[in-house]
Amino acid sequence: MAHYRASESKREQFRRYLEKAGVLDSLTSVLIALYEENEKPNNALDFLKQHLGVASPEPAEGEALRLELADLRQKHDLLVEENKDLKNRLLKYEPAQEDGMTE
């Protein structure tokens, strides 16, 4: 009987923890949304993930990010090349530095 009370106490502590963190409210609202869906989704777990905000990005969003990344990499490469060119041009106009600098 003591073991039963100890596990019940742990369960109650865990339930209070979930309640305090807002987990129970979030799960309840997502489950209610699933219940109220006229056409139930084929994959209930994906529905839960999506509504809890843990779903993976949409394919279109992922493609847009890949395109943006490719564009930014291209711009980066152009800027690196421009930086090298400007440094080389600057060296032409800087006075030559000699080892024994005497004035």
From TrEMBL:
GO terms for molecular function: transcription coactivator activity. Residues 62-89 form a coiled coil. Keywords: Coiled coil, Nucleus. It is found in: Nucleus. CDD domains: ZIP_MycBP-like. InterPro entries: AMY1 (IPR026060). GO terms for cellular component: nucleus. The keyword Nucleus applies. Transmembrane segments: none annotated. Belongs to the AMY1 family. This is c-Myc-binding protein.
